[in-house]
Amino acid sequence: MTVYRRWNIGPLGTGDRTLILAQQNERIIVDRIWITNKDSSNRNVDLHHLPADDGVNADDYGLIHDHTISAKTYEITEGPIYMEPGDKLTVAASAANAIIVTAYGRII
Description:
- By secondary structure, the protein is mainly β.
- It has one domain: Jelly Rolls.
- Helices cover 0% and strands 59% of the residues.
- The strands form 2 sheets. It has a 4-stranded antiparallel beta sheet, with no helix packed on it. A 4-stranded antiparallel beta sheet has the order 2-7-4-5, with no helix packed on it.
- The chain starts with a strand and ends with a strand.
- The model has no long low-confidence stretch (mean pLDDT 92).
């Protein structure tokens, strides 16, 4: 059975925060991710997909690295991003209290 889902996080700080963690026996397909900058200045964002079976640095798995989101705008990142049990998506922003991230997808 497929379950449609929305995940929200934010406003972000400057450290990595988990947006999605695929639980045991869950496979997730992320269809799109909205990244919103509510601040009046441009802000940068990082998005990482960390596989459960690999203990390496998040920077090795960057989907988006140091990408600028213009002031008072949003951008949409289209998927799909396939996640296996234990995988996670993390996000970080260049400044606190500016970036909000919302992901839409399916648990299969």
